[in-house]
Structures are given as structure tokens and as C-alpha cells.
Fold this protein.
Amino acid sequence: MAAENTFAFRGTYYHTPTYGRLDVLRDVVLVVQEGKIVRIANGHEETEVQEEFGLAEVRQLKAGQYFMPGFIDTHVHAPQYQFTGTGTDVPLMEWLRKYTFPAECSFQDLEAARHRYSLLVKRFLANGTTTAMYYGSLHLQPNLVLVDSIERLGQRAVVGKVNMDRLSADDYIEDTADGLRDAEEFVTYTLGKKCSRIQPCITPRFIPTCTPELMKGLAEIAQKYGCHIQSHISECCGEVNCVREMHPEYASDAAVFEEMGLLTNRTVMAHGTLLSDDDIRHLARRGTAVSHCPLSNFFLGDAFFKVNHALSLGLKVGLGTDVAGGISPSMLSAQRMAVVNSRCIRAHKLAVSGGTTVTPEMEKDVITFKEALWLATVGGAQALDLADVVGTFEVGKDFDALLVDTNLSGTSGPFDVFEGEDDDQRFEKFINLGDDRNLIEVYVQGVCVKRGDEFLLDGSNVSVKATEDDSDRIMSAPTPVEPEAAYLDLAHRADSSDEAASVDVGAAAEQSEPPTKRSRF
Ligand code: GUN
Ligand code: FE
């Protein structure tokens, strides 16, 4: 007799257990039981496997269809989804003030939050993001709505309530004690769901908006509950220089986070483009990961994150969209941007050399689609301390998978396939040219959460296309706040009795030198 919830697919599976290598399991039968992969057998063993598990059928994939692991987005701001694709005109500190804080603050309207978070989770699932590490917003209640939406729609996630008790907008800031209380309440609410797919996360927004008291208190909560931690580190010149002014006794963001107790083996720090090698080595020693967000770094960052270099120093690295700093919710886009980013480093080195000779040294930062896919799956799983659970097809892991169909020709799909192209070429085309139309089924923990246009766990089966109601909600989203010298305003907002010193905007923008003072590691 077949156990409940057992099924099998026979076909071709792609994954990247080893960095830089694309492995293909050709014509295998993969059996899933209670959400876990329990058997991977050769295709010719189908009958035996069917008998062993009492399966009424083994579903055969069509030619041109492949399974691959679901994508793991290690850095998304859930309440920023509504303005993704807009607001790319200003640097980070001004961007926060102009677009981000008003948008996030508006989630206090819980009905709006429910609509928008439902659209968000559907959009990410549709794009193949089976696991996301989400930032929520400051206020407790909308974050509970976010957790409920993720639970309802079947996504896997690590989710945090944002904390900030200084240097934010007047109407979007919390008292230290309130912030700590709400962070703990968020953790206990999320753990109370006893949903193995969803884990709470401690989320000090970034150093400029958090007092040492808040950061230390948050570290204690993380330790008490064994939680993940997420924040932003060494993202751009404006942020780094602001931190240097506020905390002159520390040489780097990493040194501040270390002192606050926020670097653990369950910490994910976004960006890290201005980390020194010493910083990277220190994060690696702590088991802390960096979420590489290439598209966002092109808009809000000032430097390149060097994936191969960071990995060579032992750092765990995942990939992130950083919606809405990154203007696309798609992890396919993030992978392509990671490749482009790496090729920009090469071009930059050549330009600096002034010559026309490409040296091996210039080549070593270049990554291919295979490395990018590893970052989007295995790298993300390692970053989120989920390497034993997801990221590849192995017996004992959960079945978080995407069914890719490369047969959509003409205008029904994003690319064409030509005679003579083999499976490997079709799969590579999907990674480089494909989109959500190619993802015909999405599985999380062995459950099909999306098939075609339908979200199967959503009672209403609402399509990812916005309904009229959704559109109304989108139109009622807050308009950007036009700041006057916003960055200065932001940077000076801290209590004058506070240790925050003034920040020279011009100098922050011009200085591109990473900090040279050594840390207290
Ligand atoms: N630093 C602090 N907050 C944010 C944010 O929302 N997005 C990005 N990219 N960087 C940040
Ligand atoms: Fe971010």
C-alpha cells in the first residue's frame, strides 16, 4: 500500500551540488513521501520502485521538461514589493526617506497589508522562489499578516520584524523597549505556528537606525530563541561613512555587529560590497553569510561584491533580489545580474590596467550561469542554515522544486528552441532567457503550491494577475515623500545627546576609500 502523500516523477533533473558544476540526473525516478525525497532510482527501475512504494502511477515528464531545485532568495523587503521597478533616482539614504519608509509605514492598514502580501508571495512563488528571507516592516501587526500569508500560500521563509529606534522618519520609528518587546512577540507568534516552513528572524534594519542598546537586546532575543538574524552590512559609501561617524571607535560595520553580538552562524548580512578582507574572514569565522544582491548593488551600492574572492576566504554566500532596491522580484534576473556583475569586475580591472591584455587575475572573478545557479540554490541554503533541507535533489531533503517547461514556442514563451538542441542547451536557455511562464509547477515541501495560473493552497485560487480590487489597492499606495536635503535630515535626526555625529553628504558621496582602521576582532 502506498503511504499517504507519496508520488513519483520520472524524467530529467538538474541541480548544482558542486560550485561551478551543473549535474544532470537523466531519466531517473524520484519518489517523494511526506514532502521528502525518499528514493532516486534509475528510470529502468520504475516498476520495482512503483511496487516498493505501492504507487498507482509514476508521472512521466514530457521531452523538454525538467525539474530543478526551487530558488532561495536570501534578501527581500516584503513591504517594498509595491514600488518595485520604480524609485531608482536617488542614493540609499535618500531613497529610504523618499520611498521606503512611507511605503513600509502604510502597512499599518492591515487590510491593505493582506492584499499586498498575498500578491507578493504569489509573485515570488510564480517566479520560482520557494524560500525567501523576508524583511517585514517596523510595526508588529502587519508582520503577523505577512507570516500568515506565507503560511497560507505554502512558501518556505525566514521572516523578520524590522527594528529601528533612531535616525528614521518621525512616524516610522520605535522606542527601544517597545521594539525589543515587539521583536520577541513576533518571534513567539511565528514559532507558535509550529510551521516547519517558517522561521522567525531578528532584524535590526542597519547600523545607522539602531542604537547599541537595541542591537544588544536583539542579539539576546536571537540567542534565547536560536533565531536567524539579518541586517545590511557595508552596502555603500553613504551608509559606511555614516556608521564611521556614529561609531568612530569601530573600524568597520563588521566590528560594530561583532561587538553587538549579532554575528552568528544564522546571520545573513546583505550586500557587503565594501567589506575588507579582514571583515570577510571574520564573518566567515563566525559562520555569518552575505546575501549578494547584484542588481540592487548597481543602483544603491558603490562597489562590486566579488563572489569568488569571498568564497575563497571561506564566506558563505547566497543570492538576493533585495526588492525594491533591486528592481526585479525574479531570482532568474538575480542570477543573470550576478554573472554580469562578475564580468563588470573583469572589465573594470582591464580598464584600470590601461592595456589590452586580459590576465588570469582579471578572469578569476568571472562566474558563469552554473555558479550563479549554485548561489541561487545551494549557496542560499547554506546561508539560511538549510543546507540539509533544500538546495539539491538528494534523498532525505525536502522536495522544493520547479517544473520547467521549455516547450513554449512562439509568443507563448520567452524563447524558442531549435532543432538539434539538446536538454543541456534547452536548460541553459531557460536560465538565461526563461521566465515565470516556463515554471508550470512549483513545489514546496512536496506540496504543489502553484500549477499554471493557480495557487493551489489559496482558497480563492486568485491568479497572479491583479484583480480590480488589487489594482485599487495599488493605486492607494502612498506617494513618495519629496525630501529637502533628505539625507542630511535623516542623518541628523538622531537625538543630539546621542553619539551620532554630523554627516557630510558630499563627503559621503565622494569618499570611496574603504575604512583602513583595523577592527577590534
Ligand atoms: N539599508 C537599510 N535599509 C535598507 C533597505 O530597505 N534596502 C537596502 N537596499 N538597503 C537598506
Ligand atoms: Fe535590503
In short: The CA atoms of residues 353 and 362 lie 10 Å apart.
